[in-house]
């Protein structure tokens, strides 16, 4: 059994099972979703533990003809770039289900859509066929519209529509780029591994690279196309925000790397310096906008924009250490922001019914666990050593110094401002006087604690022993990036 | 593979602290005593270290080195030599006293004590680590507990003070981090000993210049080194703090709880001075030398402004805080003096003085901050004008406070005199003008400290405050070890200087 494809089959089967459950039987629905999440996590852990570091490259490969007329295969496998992201999806999926245990409004439809979304996400990360990847990509984007539009809050229709339109424009660009690759290669195949062997003409690469990179970059939160992201995060229900910021944005960055950069290296060499500048704007601008927000969730939304800037900057560095840092940052930020949205949406908002920073305050007393999680996540977000963000940003910046020294120095502003807004939010939400309106708050439930502990453990573990992840990433990224850029 | 004593000293407080978190939070007495005993273990281990330390050896001892993240050259690397052994002792000595002094804290004792233990691991990590990754991890680990100690247990304006403290320090850390990333790219190492060796052979400069060329940065070799030096040093300058980066310190001190101030002044400031000695000077000796007069000017500004600002304070704690800036200024003057042109002998004197001054200031400022805390717990004010005649009601307190004050102002026979004498004697031939001007600082210090003594202890008993109870046994137990050390070092400093001297001579080779 191929444990890599088992991940998305499991969530798909989970969705189908829920379809046949009683509408009113909330508990069984949630248990089924949680079970699916747990099994997915186990499968991704199996893949992680079973991956042979000495051998490297693509492993757990499974290839079956699907639509042979057009050269489309069912082709999956993972390497050191996609495996951390599969693992990330496993963690976020499982914890997000635990966090959404309090969904009371039509949980059946909610979890069906949610599991479909997860199926798409797993699929994108493991697909080695461009067409298959695109199908999964759309599968991941579309349920989002309904999840936000129906179960969301704060201007949910607007947020859902904005997000969907942006991402569909991105998809259109990807689709054009994909077809261009298909026809230009002349191989009549969508196989990513075969396409990566093709040498496209430099002009072709320069024209098609921006289509693909921007197409995926929209989902990755590339400035100035990021505006859908904070709005969407804020409107989305908690578990969807977790998945959205935690995993979906990585899908964009992953696509940028796997498709745009790996297939069109010369286009990348031409365009990536510009991307690096945009990414630096992401980092600095994102952190400054986060500083002035009044809504707790918007702060986290913009912090994601800022942190995704590091991912894009790492990818744009075009050297092994920077790209390896970018992949680690995807994992690290996914866990961190998943934790943040769990705190904001579930632990705080569902209890206080406000996200206004001026109304919140003093929550460290009634909700010490939420406070603890926010402290760990916040320090990870500032890039303090001992937590996962540090090692990722360290590698990214070393890589960036090698190519764009000025930009590397400028990111320092982003780091300091990040510290300032995290401390500001921490102060406003958890310290000071407990607002009178906020009494009484129900304590954190055991399920929330389990989810919080899983995510916090990841942040600390990767921070202190980054080798568990870095070795895996580096064995793949090193030869891959050297092959692309010499 | 020898017995990993440094790891044990370094990590015992952390693991002891994690174990400590399992104790029931309502048993406060149990929590206090167990925190105290946990912190005593590293102290006795470091005494063992002191007795087995080879004083005639200048190289690193008790080395423990393991791979951590091979991909980025990060190692777990601990060692001691004459430069940091005294700091390790100071840390393991002050933390138990700080914990003992906090037995009166009632709010969330468990977290409070845990933060101190975490702080101890952080500080010891900074003093003993020889790889940047390891060093930086604990540099920041030391920051977090202090932030929360100020934020959660501080006085009225604690929030802004904690914020200022954190963001200032982090700003410096980021500059240092960026500089080290660049150096790593050029040299492929984060190891302090390797970097220092590269610097001695001139390869560090060559590597950095080569990298700049390749990146198309149009800097001359001197500029590259100067940028490197200032980027690394800003983190230390903020921590020391050197004027004009000192503004976070008076706020942080005033708002911090008593034990927090003790550790902040006693240990955290030394991390900055130590950083100059361990990193900035060995890596960039030529830059320091060419900028020595300018840097000495900043040190002088710290000395003078620190002293005059202290004189103008009415808040006791703020006064001691400014006096810390002044005292750390002497350390910096000594450090920049050894970089100036001159012979070995005065330099050795100055550097030994600096190391001793770090230790001495750690002891005397901790004692002073504790005394102020004792007074504050009784009077609930730190306003100097609200006291008077306290000698009559608190004779023990008056005696101990008097000794600590005299130690701080450098009275012969007490520790402060020896170190300041060594620094002045060493700096005088090297940076004559600056040293002469710095003596004004000594004078002003004497004036405001004596005024303080007079205002608190003499005159009629202030009617606002009737009889305070004198110090309790526990409070005396905190101060007495400090006072004993003040006398010990003041009367017989040679054992101390024997520990540092070989390392000092070895260190000075970079400027010969």
Describe the structure.
- The complex is a heterodimer of chains A (486) and B (512).
- Chain A is mostly helical.
- Chain A has helices at 3-19, 26-50, 82-99, 107-126, 130-151, 156-185, 192-195, 202-220, 228-235, 238-263, 265-291, 296-316, 320-352, 368-382, 388-403, 405-430, 446-464, 467-485; strands spanning 59-67, 72-78.
- Helices cover 75% and strands 3% of the residues of chain A.
- The radius of gyration of chain A is 21 Å and the shape is globular.
- Chain B is mainly α.
- Chain B contains 20 helices and two strands.
- A two-stranded antiparallel ribbon of chain B has the order 1-2.
- In chain B, α12 (285-311) packs antiparallel against α13 (316-339) and α17 packs across α19 (473-491).
- The model of chain B has no long low-confidence stretch (mean pLDDT 88).
Largest sheet of chain B: 2 strands, antiparallel
Calculate the mean pLDDT score of chain A and round it.
86
Assembly classification: heterodimer
Distance between the termini of chain B: 35 Å
Q: Unreliable stretches of chain B, pLDDT < 50, 5 or more residues?
A: none
Taking pLDDT < 50 over at least 5 consecutive residues as the criterion, the unreliable ranges of chain A are none
Tell me the fraction of residues in β-strands of chain A, as a range: under 5%
Roughly how many Å apart are the termini of chain A? 37 Å
Strand order of the largest sheet of chain A: 1-2
What is the CA-based Rg of chain B, rounded? 22 Å
How can the largest sheet of chain A be summarized? 2 strands, antiparallel
Question: What is the CA-based Rg of chain A, rounded?
Answer: 21 Å
Largest interface, with counts of residues having CB < 8 Å to the other chain, equals: A-B, 33 and 31 residues
Content of β-strand of chain B: under 5%
């Amino acid at each position: 059994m191929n444990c890599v494809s088992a991940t998305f089959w499991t969530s798909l089967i989970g969705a189908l099972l829920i379809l046949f459950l009683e509408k009113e039987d909330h508990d069984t629905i949630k248990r089924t979703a949680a079970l699916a999440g747990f099994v997915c996590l186990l499968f991704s852990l199996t893949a992680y533990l079973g991956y042979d570091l000495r051998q490297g490259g693509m492993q757990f490969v499974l290839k079956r003809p699907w639509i042979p007329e057009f050269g489309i295969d069912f082709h999956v496998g993972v390497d050191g770039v996609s495996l951390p992201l599969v693992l990330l999806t496993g963690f976020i999926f499982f914890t997000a289900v635990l966090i959404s245990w309090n969904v009371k409004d039509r949980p059946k439809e909610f979890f069906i859509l949610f599991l479909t979304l997860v199926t798409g996400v797993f699929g994108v990360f493991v697909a080695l066929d461009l067409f298959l990847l695109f199908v999964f990509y759309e599968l991941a984007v579309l349920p989002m519209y309904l999840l936000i539009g129906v179960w969301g809050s704060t201007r949910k229709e607007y947020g859902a529509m904005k997000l969907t339109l942006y991402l569909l424009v991105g998809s259109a660009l990807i689709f054009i780029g994909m077809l261009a690759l298909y026809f230009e290669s002349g191989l009549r195949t969508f196989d990513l591994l075969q396409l990566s062997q093709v040498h496209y003409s430099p002009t072709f690469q320069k024209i098609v690279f921006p289509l693909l990179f921007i197409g995926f970059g929209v989902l990755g939160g590339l400035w100035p196309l990021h505006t859908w992201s904070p709005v969407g995060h804020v409107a989305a229900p908690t578990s969807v925000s977790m998945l959205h910021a935690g995993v979906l944005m990585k899908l964009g960055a992953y696509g940028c790397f796997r498709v745009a950069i790996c297939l069109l290296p010369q286009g990348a060499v031409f365009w990536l310096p510009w991307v690096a500048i945009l990414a630096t704007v992401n980092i600095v601008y994102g952190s400054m906008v986060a500083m002035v927000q009044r809504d707790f969730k918007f702060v986290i939304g913009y912090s994601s924009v800022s942190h995704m800037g590091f991912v894009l900057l790492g990818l744009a560095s075009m050297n092994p250490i920077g790209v390896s840092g970018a992949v680690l940052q995807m994992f690290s930020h996914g866990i961190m922001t998943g934790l943040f949205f769990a705190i904001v949406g579930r632990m705080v908002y569902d209890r206080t019914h406000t996200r206004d920073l001026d109304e919140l305050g003093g929550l460290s007393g009634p909700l010490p666990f939420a406070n603890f999680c926010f402290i760990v996540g916040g320090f990870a977000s500032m890039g303090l050593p001992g937590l996962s963000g540090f090692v990722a940003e360290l590698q990214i910046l070393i890589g960036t110094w090698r190519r764009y020294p000025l930009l590397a120095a400028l990111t320092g502003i982003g780091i300091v401002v990040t510290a300032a807004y995290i401390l500001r939010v921490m102060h406003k939400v958890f310290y000071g006087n407990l607002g009178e309106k906020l009494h009484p708050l129900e304590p954190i439930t055991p399920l929330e604690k389990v989810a919080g502990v899983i995510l916090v453990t990841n942040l600390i573990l990767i921070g202190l022993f980054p080798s568990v992840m870095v070795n895996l990433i580096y064995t793949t990224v090193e030869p891959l990036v050297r092959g692309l850029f010499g | 593979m020898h017995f990993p004593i440094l790891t044990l000293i370094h990590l015992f407080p952390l693991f002891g602290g994690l174990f400590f978190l399992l104790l029931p939070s309502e048993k406060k007495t149990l929590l206090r005593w167990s925190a105290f005993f946990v912190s005593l273990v590293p102290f006795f281990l470091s005494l063992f270290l002191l007795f087995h330390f080879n004083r005639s050896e200048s190289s690193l001892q008790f080395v423990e080195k393991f791979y951590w993240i091979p991909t980025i050259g990060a190692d777990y690397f601990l060692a001691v030599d004459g430069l940091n052994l005294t700091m390790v002792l100071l840390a393991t000595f002050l933390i138990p006293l700080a914990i003992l002094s906090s037995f009166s804290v009632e709010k969330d004792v468990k977290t409070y004590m845990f933060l101190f233990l975490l702080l101890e691991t952080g500080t010891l990590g900074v003093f003993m680590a020889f790889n940047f990754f390891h060093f930086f991890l604990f540099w920041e680990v030391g920051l977090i507990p202090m932030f929360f100690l100020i934020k959660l247990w501080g006085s009225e304006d604690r929030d802004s003070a904690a914020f200022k403290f954190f963001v200032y320090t982090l700003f410096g850390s980021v500059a240092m981090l960026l500089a080290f990333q660049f150096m790593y790219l050029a040299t492929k190492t984060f190891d302090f000993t390797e970097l220092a060796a590269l610097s001695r052979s001139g390869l560090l400069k060559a590597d950095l210049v080569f990298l700049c060329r390749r990146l198309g940065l149009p800097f001359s070799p001197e500029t590259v080194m100067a940028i490197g030096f200032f980027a690394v040093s800003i983190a230390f300058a903020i921590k020391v703090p050197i004027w004009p980066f000192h503004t976070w310190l008076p706020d942080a001190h005033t708002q911090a709880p008593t034990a927090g101030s003790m550790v902040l002044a006693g240990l955290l400031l030394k991390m900055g001075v130590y950083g100059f000695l361990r990193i900035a000077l060995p890596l960039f000796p030529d830059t320091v030398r060419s900028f020595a007069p300018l840097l000495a000017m900043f040190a002088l500004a710290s000395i003078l402004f620190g002293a005059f600002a202290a004189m103008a304070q009415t808040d006791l704690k703020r006064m001691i805080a400014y006096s810390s800036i002044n005292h750390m200024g002497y350390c910096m003057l000594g450090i920049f003096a050894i970089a100036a042109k001159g012979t070995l002998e005065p330099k050795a004197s100055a550097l030994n003085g600096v190391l001793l001054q770090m230790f001495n200031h750690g002891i005397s400022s901790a004692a002073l901050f504790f005394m102020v805390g004792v007074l504050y717990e009784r009077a609930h004010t730190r306003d100097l004008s609200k006291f008077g005649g306290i000698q009559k009601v608190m004779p023990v307190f008056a005696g101990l406070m008097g000794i600590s004050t005299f130690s701080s102002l450098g009275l012969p026979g007490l520790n402060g005199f020896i170190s300041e004498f060594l620094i002045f004697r060493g700096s005088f031939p090297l940076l004559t003008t600056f040293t002469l001007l710095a003596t004004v600082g000594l004078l002003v210090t004497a004036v405001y400290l004596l005024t303080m003594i007079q205002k608190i202890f003499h005159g009629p008993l202030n009617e606002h405050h009737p009889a305070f109870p004198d110090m309790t046994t526990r409070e005396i137990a905190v101060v007495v070890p400090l006072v004993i050390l003040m006398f010990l070092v003041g009367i017989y400093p040679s054992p101390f200087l024997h520990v540092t001297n070989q390392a000092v001579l070895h260190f000075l080779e970079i400027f010969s």
